[in-house]
Every structure is written in C-alpha cells, then in structure tokens.
User: Fold this.
Amino acid sequence: MSYTMTCVTLKFNLTHTSMYGQLGLMDSMTHSEMYLFHDTLLVTISVIFLSVVLYYMMVTNTGFQVLNMENMAKLDTASEMIWTIVPLFVLCSLGIPSLALLYKLEYMGTVDLTYKVIGHQWYWSYGHGESSVDSYMVAEPTVGDLRLLDVDNRLSVPYGADIRFIVTSTDVIHAFSLPNFFVKCDAVPGRLNTSYVNSDVPGLAYGQCSEICGVNHSFMPICLEFVNWEGFMESVAGW
Assistant:
C-alpha cells in the first residue's frame, strides 16, 4: 500500500492540471508572462470599475457638490487633456503587451520537432515521421489516473525543445486545446493549422477537444508527457 501511494503522489506532483476548488489559472509550463499580463489586466479593470462607481456616486449625490454639473462646465483644458491622455495610456499599456504575447504564441521560428495531430470522432492520432499512434480515453481509470483526462497512449515529447503541431481532422471540426500552454488550435478537415509549444519542465499536460464535435465530444482528451530525450527516443521506437 505504501508503494502505491508513493507512486500516486509522484504522478500528481508532475501533473500540471487544474484541481477541484482551484481559483485562478492552472499551473503553466511555459510563457510565465501570460500570468503577469492576466494579473495586470485584472487589476486595471478593477480600478476602472471602482473609479466609475465612485464617480457616479459623487455626481448623483446631492449633498456632494464637488463634481456637480456647474463645476464640470468650468473645468479647464488641462483637465480635458488628462481624461483624454490617461485612457489612451491605459489602452496602449494593455494593447502593446497583448500583441507581443500573441506574436510569441503564434510564431516560434525554428523548431526541433514536428508532429502531425489528426482529430477523429472521437480520438486523436499523432504522427512523427513515418510512425503514428492513436490515443483514446481510458474508459476505466485506475488509481492515480485522472477521470476523463487520461489516455491509453500518451504523446511523449522532450521538454526544453521547440515543438510544432500541424493540426487537421478527418471528419468534423475539432479543437486541439492545451490550457497549460494557452493553445487552442482548430482541427478543420482539409486544412492544416499550426501551433507551437515549449515546456521548461518535465511532467504531464492535459487538454481536451474544445469544439463540439458530436455525442462523445467530452471523451477525447489530450495528454502530453514531457520527458528527456532518452525517454522520447524510447517512446517513438515503441510506435
């Protein structure tokens, strides 16, 4: 019993997924700037919301005459410039990092490995070179498996490497989604879409199809296992 519990603890320590009762974003395996941008955006929106509420309360309060309509008409040009420049500064401070992160997510330059990801009803196929493997959801998970997330064939990829996924589908539209990497790539029949990931740490990353694709849409999970290069070569040799 102690040996089993040790294995389960080790597995969950290397698993990067959301847990019951968790607030906020799940643990990221890359792009830590996304968390900083998320927190900055949340604080900015909160400050703007509170400012609007306080302004409305002061204007509508008859006992508070600092910002009534007569005083508003007497505001000079400097005040008008302030309430024009400040929103412009806020929008630029949010828009420029957003565009930079979007470019970083969509383009990686040179890549180390390329996988072809094919969506089916209702499973995924992964191909590398001349080899390929099908990945189905585990119907009866064992101790330590995550319900509706674990698969029979995990996709093993080396951590620290730049990975490119070429995503398509054979039947209907699916979506290859990996929340740990802020990736959601549509799998469209007859079309090739590209997505990139890079993990700084080993472990498991889970995802699911994020496009309604039929009756078993909820039962086609994605599981990436980031290992060292030796483990990657062994897994590919077993395909």
Q: What stands out?
A: The first helix runs from residue 2 to 13. Residues 1-14 have pLDDT under 50 and may be disordered.
